[in-house]
Amino acid sequence: MLTIASRLDVMNRLGRAMADPTRSRILLSLLDAPGYPAKLARELELTRTNVSNHLACLRDCGIVVAEPEGRQTRYEIADPHLTAALNALVETTLAVDEGAACLDPACPEGCCTSGQTP
């Protein structure tokens, strides 16, 4: 059953979905074009099960939708407004202090320096 989520719940779901590097990679791929789990797994060098689990999270968060196509399922960003917002977020350049320590306690030391990502 679909419900109307509070603004805080929406922000929390979006943050959780985008906080995972694998889900972020999947979202970036889906911003370019709709995708299929097997194709995404090949492109991102992940297992199909891993991709399917992340797509389920993104679907449950309302960020992507699944469209059955015969024996396959096509995934795409749920709404054109969301696509525009995600593209704007990706294209926005933020000033970063290269000397600042990463705030993620799970990251190894120096993880976010010199253009590396955790």
TrEMBL record:
<dbReference type="InterPro" id="IPR011991">
    <property type="entry name" value="ArsR-like_HTH"/>
</dbReference>
<dbReference type="GO" id="GO:0003700">
    <property type="term" value="F:DNA-binding transcription factor activity"/>
</dbReference>
<dbReference type="InterPro" id="IPR036388">
    <property type="entry name" value="WH-like_DNA-bd_sf"/>
</dbReference>
<dbReference type="InterPro" id="IPR001845">
    <property type="entry name" value="HTH_ArsR_DNA-bd_dom"/>
</dbReference>
<dbReference type="GO" id="GO:0003677">
    <property type="term" value="F:DNA binding"/>
</dbReference>
<dbReference type="InterPro" id="IPR052543">
    <property type="entry name" value="HTH_Metal-responsive_Reg"/>
</dbReference>
<dbReference type="GO" id="GO:0097063">
    <property type="term" value="F:cadmium ion sensor activity"/>
</dbReference>
<dbReference type="GO" id="GO:0032791">
    <property type="term" value="F:lead ion binding"/>
</dbReference>
<dbReference type="GO" id="GO:0046686">
    <property type="term" value="P:response to cadmium ion"/>
</dbReference>
<dbReference type="Pfam" id="PF01022">
    <property type="entry name" value="HTH_5"/>
</dbReference>
<protein>
    <submittedName>
        <fullName>Transcriptional regulator</fullName>
    </submittedName>
</protein>
<dbReference type="InterPro" id="IPR036390">
    <property type="entry name" value="WH_DNA-bd_sf"/>
</dbReference>
<dbReference type="GO" id="GO:0010288">
    <property type="term" value="P:response to lead ion"/>
</dbReference>
<feature type="domain" description="HTH arsR-type">
    <location>
        <begin position="4"/>
        <end position="97"/>
    </location>
</feature>
